[in-house]
Automatic annotation (TrEMBL):
Keywords: Isomerase, Pyridoxal phosphate. The active site is at K40, Y261. Residues 240-366 form the Alanine racemase C-terminal domain. It comes from Undibacterium rugosum. Belongs to the alanine racemase family. It catalyses: L-alanine = D-alanine. This is Alanine racemase. HAMAP family: Ala_racemase. PROSITE patterns: ALANINE_RACEMASE. The keyword Cell membrane does not apply. Pathway: Amino-acid biosynthesis; D-alanine biosynthesis; D-alanine from L-alanine: step 1/1. Gene3D superfamilies: Alanine racemase, Lyase, Ornithine Decarboxylase, Chain A, domain 1. Transmembrane segments: none annotated. Its EC number is 5.1.1.1.
Length: 366
């Protein structure tokens, strides 16, 4: 791919070296525990194939996706010793596809356990899986009642080779939240069901909660992609996504002129407005209307008016015309204007900013 083309409205640079550096930092923090990677949702919008390749090269061997379909499309791009784990487990009737494609399910319910057991019986061999407990999220995994069924059934896991017991933290980014310790205690207690099995609890933020949360395998996603793992603390991760939008028009407007749909912003004095070819269809959320900012030659400019489907409008009155040529690029995401900052302005979290990144960008992988 060419380094730069005027055909698209924006250039998204994905710094794979930063992903690798982030992986190494998390691995270091984990000490003896393994560091896997959540690459679901196309590696949080950044491109599961190139990102997973970079992670594999950095030593990662456990790749977590949500859906079977994601695993199947990623499988041919990873070496055979990479484990691909489907966190939603198998949809009913699709169990055999896991074997066909070399993927491992997370078993989240009695029905999923039973179906995997039945497949093992039919195959006459032990089949690997991860078993998830719900320790406080009420979302997925075996509930307390399910665990009782397990306790009363000696053949519960017949034919299932449990590689890991797993659970997921509710509020790991908030180290002071007592729910962390409560979940840790619950999870540690449940491990007595299968004491020889390895365990996995920590997401990105969980890695920063200390060694007690590390167990044998962590499953970070967001931190690999530059999102701050600990609320209210300096972000130790490197920025991965760098987004630049293209100026397609600049105009001078007189005082009291409405800008954009609904004229939600009006100029007080005469002003200079730059239209940039990135809109809500590109993940530049409408909630950034009259709240977002961009940077031109290091100078912050305000997003004014509503975000349109294909464009945003910036108040560039203070910017020299030499920086505002048609086709010039303005910074929307950078090391100094991070996904977390954009998320705060948009009223969401960095995760949603990344996973919303558009498919019309020219993508450049470094
Ligand atoms: C998404 C997800 C992760 C990764 O979480 P991050 O907060 O992005 O590190 C880990 N485990 C489960 C079960 C998940 O759904």
């Amino acid at each position: 791919m060419q380094e730069m083309t005027g055909r698209s409205g924006a250039v998204l640079r994905v710094d794979l070296q930063a992903v690798q550096n982030n992986y190494r930092l998390l691995s270091q923090k984990l000490g003896k525990a393994q560091c896997g990677a959540a690459v679901k949702a196309d590696a949080y919008g950044l491109g599961a194939i190139p990102v997973s390749g970079a992670l594999y090269a950095a030593g990662c061997r456990y790749f977590f996706v949500a859906h079977l379909e994601e695993a199947i499309s990623l499988r041919p791009h990873l070496p055979s010793d990479a484990r691909l784990i489907v966190m939603h487990g198998s949809p009913v009737g699709y169990e055999a596809e896991f074997l066909e494609h070399g993927c491992m399910p997370v078993l989240n319910s009695l029905a999923q356990v039973a179906a995997w057991r039945a497949l093992a019986k039919q195959q006459q061999r032990a089949l690997p899986a991860i078993v998830q407990f719900d320790t406080g999220m009420a979302r997925m995994g075996l509930s307390a009642q399910d665990v009782d069924v397990w306790r009363n059934d000696a053949a519960f896991l017949e034919g299932i080779q449990v590689e890991y017991l797993m659970s997921h933290l509710v509020s790991a980014e908030d180290a002071s939240n007592p729910v962390n310790a409560a979940q840790l205690a619950r999870f540690s207690g449940l491990r007595s069901l299968l004491p020889q099995a390895k365990a996995s609890l920590a997401n990105s933020s969980g890695v920063f909660l200390g060694a007690a949360y590390h167990f044998d395998l962590a499953r970070p996603g967001a931190a690999l992609y530059g999102v701050a793992p600990v609320a209210g603390q300096a972000n130790p991760m490197q920025a991965v996504a760098h987004l630049q939008g293209r100026i397609i028009q600049v105009r001078e407007i007189p005082p009291d002129t409405g800008v954009g749909y609904g004229s939600t912003w009006r100029s007080r004095d005469s002003a200079k407005i730059a239209t940039v070819a990135v809109g809500y269809a590109d993940g530049w959320m409408r909630s950034l209307s009259n709240r977002g900012v961009a940077h031109i030659a290091g100078q912050e400019v305000a997003m004014v008016g509503n975000v349109s489907m294909d464009t945003i409008t910036l108040d560039v009155t203070a910017i020299a015309d030499s920086e505002l040529q048609e086709g010039a690029l303005v910074d929307l995401l950078s090391a100094s204007h991070t996904v977390d900052q954009v998320a705060a302005r948009a009223g969401t979290i960095g995760y949603e900013i990344l996973t919303s990144l558009g498919h019309r960008y020219q993508r450049v992988y470094r």
